[in-house]
């Protein structure tokens, strides 16, 4: 699905990612864990195409194409989805209208017929149930006045509607209480599919109790220092990150 | 014309002759240079006549079920108008003819503003026509009144008087429009008086033709427990200025001013508002927004004066400005004068471009750069328009406002 090779990224002249290598196959769920400031969010922003990140070396190949040459919206049309760490509030832009515009832009891109209002509303209602999002949220401004947990649920709801091939969940678990985490995780689990890959970026092993990853990576100091299965996450929880650093330095 | 009315108009003319037009040396006119008006219209600019006919029918607001007062090039058009039976609506010209003693009261000629302001003085001396509306006590107007002022250029002076009786209620749409390529000037002074418990929702839609200049003034006087909502939208014209003055004279009065300017090219739009809290327990809410593109220039000056006795005043003012082009400019200035301690007054000003985080968020959901910009611009401006309770008027203004900005293609889609 996606292959990242020797990726070096700097932000405002400062090198953040120093040679990331990562390959994620179709249907796989990978967790990327790491301490603060290790470059986790930089990686997800670069994949989604945010401005301000300079790729100085390396490549990202997505479905056989050069991802870095694509505009953010084109990435979205091709099935890349970022669930934001801090979803932005956009008062006055209706949640449902945004999604309809997004879904139909992708359909136009694929040469498919746009969904009409009726079909779209049916789709949206169905998906809202998945993350137990109250119907009233559909007609509100994007994230406007939502609580932290509601914003995160709204991200997963959007993911459900947009049906991406590659979903990046950037600290979707941060700031959630157990109930909200359970709802979000249930939503994500329902969206696991053979043709959909998921990258979960997180600080906490807790999330992985609810969404079991196929592969766990440790990102620290701008590099993937270690890769393992879900047991690695448990070990990190117990021992912290320093031993991974020491092991990598040795 | 009665001697007293004639006398007032003569006095106004003298005041105008003595003062002329304000210049940028006047603090209040620092950012708005109207000497260009004289350059465009010539020495006799105050009486430059329109030369072409104009068609009022093309400015009808779709789906608006309303009474209509149509004024074409400064003259009431009875044929095109549709007046209510239950409420007195007359043309100013007819009133000057038939009931001159009522005129000065209704359109506040008694007000001394005309002695200090050259434009109001000219308007007071020269106003040819306008709508005079009296809603009797305890009457609720069953439909809005649409006052349609159309011109084909040239100079027109309009004077409108609105009197809402005790516990009476009305919705009035004052609409200035034109579709021509001529230079011209509209001066429009509107006096609104609300008696005890009266309510008005007043729309002021400035949609003049591109080369028309527009100098407007709205004076609102409110008695006990009255309520006024003013939606002031400035979209058309070349140089445009509106002064809104609200006087909250008795306890419990409340006013809400919602303003929007949308300017492009070299348009200049200036809004000066002043709210006088002269009594206790009055509330004022003011929310003005500007969307400025091209080389346009916006000015907002919002003054709030809370008098010594006006305890428990509750006032909030907000002015937000969106600059779509690096050549667009806004001068904004909130002014608060508070003469007692027992008040709640908040104010805030922002000036900015479209938010990069919001843009990226929308694009990450599949919207093109153009679509994302449109959507955010629309959302910014529509926050003000969404407060209009009349949906037909709101749609009409939305279309007019966004037709002039680049890249707004699928407005219908956005409105859903």
What would you say this structure looks like, in words?
The complex is a heterodimer of chains A (250) and B (416). With 250 residues, chain A is an alpha/beta fold. Chain A has one domain: P-loop containing nucleotide triphosphate hydrolases (Rossmann fold). Helix content of chain A is 38%, strand content 28%. Chain A contains nine helices and twelve strands. Chain A has helices at residues 40-48, 72-77, 95-109, 117-130, 148-162, 178-191, 206-210, 230-239, 242-249, and strands at 2-11, 14-24, 29-33, 54-62, 65-66, 80-83, 90-94, 141-142, 166-170, 197-202, 215-220, 223-228. In chain A, the strands form three sheets. In chain A, strands 6-9-10-3-11-12 form a six-stranded mixed β-sheet, with helices on both faces. In chain A, strands 2-1-4-5 form a four-stranded antiparallel β-sheet, covered by helices on one side. In chain A, strand 4 (54-62) and strand 5 (65-66) form a beta hairpin. Chain B is α/β, with parallel strands linked by helices and 416 residues long. Chain B folds into two domains: 3-359, no CATH class; 360-416, no CATH class. Chain B is built from ten helices and 19 strands. In chain B, the strands form two sheets. A ten-stranded mixed β-sheet of chain B has the order 2-1-5-7-9-11-13-15-17-19, with helices on one face. A nine-stranded mixed β-sheet of chain B has the order 3-4-6-8-10-12-14-16-18. In chain B, strand 1 (67-72) and strand 2 (75-76) form a beta hairpin. The longest helix of chain B has 17 residues, at 3-19. The N and C termini of chain B lie far apart (54 Å). The interface between A and B is medium-sized, with 32 and 27 residues.
């Amino acid at each position: 699905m996606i292959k990242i090779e020797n990726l070096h990224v700097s932000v405002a002249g400062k090198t953040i990612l120093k040679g990331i290598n990562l390959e994620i196959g179709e249907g796989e769920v990978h967790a990327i864990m790491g301490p603060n400031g290790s470059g986790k969010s930089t990686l997800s922003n670069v994949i989604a195409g945010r401005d301000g990140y300079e790729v100085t070396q390396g490549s990202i190949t997505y479905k056989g194409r050069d991802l870095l040459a694509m505009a953010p919206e084109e990435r979205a049309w091709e099935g890349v989805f970022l669930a934001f760490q801090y979803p932005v509030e956009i008062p006055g832009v209706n949640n449902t209208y945004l999604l309809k515009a997004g879904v139909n832009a992708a359909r136009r891109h694929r040469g498919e017929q746009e969904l009409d209002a009726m079909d779209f509303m049916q789709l949206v209602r169905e998906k809202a149930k998945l993350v137990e999002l109250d119907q009233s949220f559909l007609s509100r401004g994007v994230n406007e006045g939502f609580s932290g947990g509601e914003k995160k649920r709204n991200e997963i709801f959007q993911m459900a509607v947009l049906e991406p091939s590659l979903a990046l969940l950037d600290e979707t678990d941060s700031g959630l209480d157990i109930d909200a985490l359970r709802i979000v995780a249930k939503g994500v689990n329902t969206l696991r599919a053979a043709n959909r890959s998921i990258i979960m970026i997180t600080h906490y092993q807790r999330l992985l109790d609810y969404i079991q990853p196929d592969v766990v990576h440790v990102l620290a100091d701008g590099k993937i220092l270690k890769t393992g299965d879900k047991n690695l996450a448990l070990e990190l929880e117990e021992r912290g990150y320093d031993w991974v650093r020491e092991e990598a330095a040795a | 014309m009665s001697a007293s009315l004639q006398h007032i108009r003569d006095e106004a003319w003298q005041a105008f002759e003595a003062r002329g037009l304000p210049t940028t040396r006047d603090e209040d006119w620092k950012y708005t240079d109207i000497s260009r008006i004289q350059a465009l219209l010539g020495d006799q600019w105050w009486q430059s006549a329109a030369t072409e006919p104009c068609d009022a029918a093309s400015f009808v607001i779709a789906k608006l079920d309303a009474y209509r007062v149509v004024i074409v090039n400064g003259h009431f058009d009875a044929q095109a108008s549709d007046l209510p039976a239950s409420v007195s609506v007359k043309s100013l010209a007819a009133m000057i003819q038939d009931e001159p003693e009522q005129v000065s009261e209704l359109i506040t000629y008694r007000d001394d503003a005309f002695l200090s302001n050259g434009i109001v003085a000219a308007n007071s001396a020269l106003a040819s026509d306008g709508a005079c509306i009296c809603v009797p006590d305890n009457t609720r107007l069953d439909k809005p009144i649409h006052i349609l002022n159309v011109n084909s250029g040239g100079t027109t002076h309009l004077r409108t008087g609105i009197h809402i009786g005790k516990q009476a209620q009305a919705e009035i749409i004052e609409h200035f429009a034109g579709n021509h390529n001529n230079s011209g000037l509209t001066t429009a002074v509107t006096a609104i008086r609300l008696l005890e418990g009266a309510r008005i929702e007043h729309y002021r839609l400035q949609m003049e033709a591109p080369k028309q200049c527009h100098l407007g003034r709205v004076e609102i006087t409110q008695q006990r427990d009255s309520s006024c909502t003013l939606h002031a939208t400035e979209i058309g014209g070349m140089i445009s200025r509106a002064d809104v003055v609200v006087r909250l004279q008795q306890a419990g009065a409340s006013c809400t001013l919602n303003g929007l300017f949308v300017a492009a090219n070299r348009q200049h739009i200036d809004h000066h508002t002043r709210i006088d809290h002269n009594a206790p327990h009055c509330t004022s809410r003011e929310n003005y927004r500007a969307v400025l593109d091209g080389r346009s220039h916006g000015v907002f000056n919002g003054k709030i004066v809370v008098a010594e006795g006006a305890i428990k005043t509750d006032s909030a003012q907000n002015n937000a400005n969106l600059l779509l082009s690096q050549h667009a400019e806004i001068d904004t200035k909130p002014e608060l004068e508070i003469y007692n301690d027992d008040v709640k007054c908040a104010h805030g000003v922002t000036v900015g471009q479209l938010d990069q985080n919001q843009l990226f968020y929308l694009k990450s959901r599949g919207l093109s750069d153009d679509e994302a910009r449109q959507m955010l611009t629309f959302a910014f401006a529509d926050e003000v328009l969404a407060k209009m309770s009349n949906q037909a008027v709101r749609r009409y203004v939305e279309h007019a406002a966004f037709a002039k900005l680049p890249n707004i293609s699928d407005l219908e889609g956005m409105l859903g």
